[in-house]
């Protein structure tokens, strides 16, 4: 055997050795989607030897593949002779392999990026396609955890720590958006503001911790009554606000009265004490005469003030003052 032939055989041997040991998946398909090449990465993660899958149609060998999606990636590569790519954010994986990396063991499967490469013969025709599978589980998990951490930070920035309701800043942002939406669409929504009657007496009798228990107790009752479309928040101290979307003042009154009765009949247990309290509530339906969301709060607050001045433990609906003739 000539020296040149020996070198060529050695080069082929090295290439095959690299092909089998490289830390990416390599799969070659023919035009009928039959598997022609299956490297060591694919063997190790699938548990299938090359001879077990060779000449089998990919979708028969792996019926759990997302066939429709994968064909949308493969077929244009055969036809257009262009490479295609996919990343885990678009599609988490092609082959659902288990994740064995100890650092990212929290991942139930391997996240994958992939490249689809057309393979041509000596006449330039695409006869085969190579799929390169990259294990990007570490990158994916890091990004997912970072996103989850950012989401949690955002949630915390919008949440009142004591009650787990929306805090005032975020709740007012929601109210401003609802105000603008109603002014644009000429729909209907109502604003409800309420607070604990004689809250100072609660603090004086049971201390600030007892007052916090009353605030938390009220928040729990409120959350039980909120609909999915309602936006509740702690406006400040013992005061709460609820944006009742697609709700008239009369409908809001029914909601508020139910809430008032539930609070009046409930009992707060704090240490060895048990006590009760009541709330007063004000309602204002959106009208075109309101010039800002702050104005909406002001008129609702005036209804609450009226409820306070007329005896407390009641609901009042804001009515537009009549000008003297």
From TrEMBL:
InterPro entries: Diguanylate_Cyclase (IPR050469), GGDEF_dom (IPR000160), Nucleotide_cyclase (IPR029787), PAS-like_dom_sf (IPR035965), Rev_trsase/Diguanyl_cyclase (IPR043128)
Entry cofactors: Mg(2+)
GO MF assignments: diguanylate cyclase activity
Xref: CDD domains: GGDEF
Reaction catalysis annotation: 2 GTP = 3',3'-c-di-GMP + 2 diphosphate
Domain GGDEF, chain residue ranges per copy: 187-320
One GO-annotated biological process of the protein: cell adhesion involved in single-species biofilm formation
Pfam families in the record: GGDEF
Domain of life: Bacteria
EC numbers: 2.7.7.65
GO cellular component terms, semicolon-separated: plasma membrane
Classification via NCBIfam families: GGDEF
Protein name: diguanylate cyclase
Source organism of this protein record: Psychrosphaera saromensis
């Amino acid at each position: 055997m000539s020296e040149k032939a020996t070198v060529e055989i050695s080069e082929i041997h090295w290439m095959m050795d690299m092909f089998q040991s490289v830390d990416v998946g390599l799969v070659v398909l023919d035009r009928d989607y039959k598997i022609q090449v299956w490297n060591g990465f694919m063997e190790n993660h699938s548990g299938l030897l090359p001879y077990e899958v060779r000449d089998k149609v990919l979708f028969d060998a792996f019926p759990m593949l997302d066939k429709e999606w994968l064909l949308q990636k493969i077929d244009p590569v055969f036809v257009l002779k262009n490479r295609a790519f996919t990343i885990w954010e678009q599609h988490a994986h092609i082959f659902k392999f288990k994740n064995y990396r100890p650092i990212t063991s929290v991942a139930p499967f391997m996240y994958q990026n992939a490249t689809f490469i057309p393979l041509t013969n000596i006449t330039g025709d695409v006869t085969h396609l190579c799929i390169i599978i990259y294990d990007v589980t570490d990158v994916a998990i890091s990004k997912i955890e970072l996103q989850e951490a950012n989401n949690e930070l955002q949630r915390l920035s919008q949440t009142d720590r004591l009650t787990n309701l929306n805090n005032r800043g975020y709740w007012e942002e929601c109210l401003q958006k609802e105000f603008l939406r109603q002014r644009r669409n000429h729909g209907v929504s109502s604003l409800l503001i309420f607070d604990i009657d004689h809250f100072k007496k609660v603090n004086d009798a049971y201390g600030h911790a007892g007052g916090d228990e009353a605030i938390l107790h009220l928040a729990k009752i409120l959350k039980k009554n909120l609909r999915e479309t309602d936006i509740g928040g702690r406006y400040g101290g013992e005061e709460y606000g609820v944006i009742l979307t697609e709700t008239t003042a009369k409908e809001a009154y029914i909601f508020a009265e139910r809430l008032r009765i539930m609070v009046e009949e409930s009992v707060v247990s704090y240490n060895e004490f048990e006590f009760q309290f009541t709330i007063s509530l004000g309602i204002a339906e959106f009208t075109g005469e309101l010039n800002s969301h702050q104005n909406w709060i002001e008129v609702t607050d005036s209804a609450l003030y009226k409820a306070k001045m007329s005896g407390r433990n009641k609901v009042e609906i804001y009515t537009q003052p009549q000008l003297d003739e």
